[in-house]
Amino acid sequence: MKAKNLIIITCDELRGDVPGFMGNPNCRTPNMDGFAANSVTFSKHFAVHGKCVPSRISMMTGRYPHTEGFRTIHQHLQADQPNLAGKLKQFGYETAVFGLNHVWENFYGSNEKSSGYVDYHSFTKGYFDFINERKWPVAQPGVNSAKVLELEDGYHYCGRIEGALAGHSDANRAEQAVHYLTKVRDSGKPFYMQLNLSSPHPPYAVEEPYFSMYDRKKIKAWPHDLPEGAPLHLRKMREIRTGLGTCEMHLRELQAVYYGMVTKADSLVGKTLETVKKEGLLDDSIVIFT
């Protein structure tokens, strides 16, 4: 039996109740919705840690973070620790990781830090050129575009992105994944590919048309009061993300930009999934979005 390809697409800081297929009528996620309609949806899926790096490592090891002491964003897998990419390599898989790494020590320019587990990543030869040379122009604001606000101190808000996207942007990462699928992968081998998008991770900022896509006054506002007797870690997370501000207008602004970031990520997820289909890989692949 032919081994299945494994494709994992992740969005950092995407709330489980935001996409349309999870019942949110306000946020537009047509590509995620279409994918979910033909997939199994784990509606009670949860992260095993409150921080991204321990959670990412658990996805590679299949073990809880506390089992091996991964509790902070500054600890990474060591070369001798078993992981999914390494195990798949042993079974003849080609491996590729694009976007955020945050599992092994951040590797740049070579695969040495990944101990050979990853054949291709965002900083290997050929992909690093994308970061240095490629630019993605964005739409400029028009007369009816939403205004960028001056929010209270503490909000991780940068408003509208103008000019062109460059460097290690999500547009870049998705383009790298498409390039791998269409130009680079060894068609004689099964492959493992992971695309890690940053959006909608703060700071909250996105280009047009996504910045102005959601009417701040019409979206259903999230509840923003902390529960009575909230523990210290929740209170500190609130302080870090939004200062001590509770201005309804400012909180709606954050939510609208966040939704815009999610819809932008949805477009990149769609671009990647469409490439998987066009390359005739869907029937021979397990595709996971999380």
Briefly characterize the structure.
The protein is of the alpha/beta class and 290 residues long.
What layout of secondary structure does this protein have?
Blueprint lengths: L4 E7 L18 H8 L14 H10 L3 H4 L15 H7 L3 E6 L20 E2 L6 H6 L1 E3 L19 E5 L2 E3 L3 H15 L6 E7 L6 E4 L24 H11 L5 H31 L6 E5 L1
Parallel strand pairs: 1-7, 1-9, 2-3, 2-7, 5-8
Antiparallel strand pairs: 4-6
Helix pairs in contact: 1-8, 6-8
Structural write-up:
The structure is a single chain. Helix 1 packs across helix 8 (248-278). The strands form three sheets. The protein has a five-stranded parallel beta sheet, sandwiched between helices. It has a two-stranded antiparallel ribbon with strand order 4-6. The protein has a two-stranded parallel ribbon with strand order 5-8. By secondary structure, it is an alpha/beta fold. The model has no long low-confidence stretch (mean pLDDT 90). It is globular. It is built from eight helices and nine strands.
Task: For the structure shown, list the relevant keywords.
290 residues, 5-stranded parallel sheet, two-stranded antiparallel ribbon, 9 strands
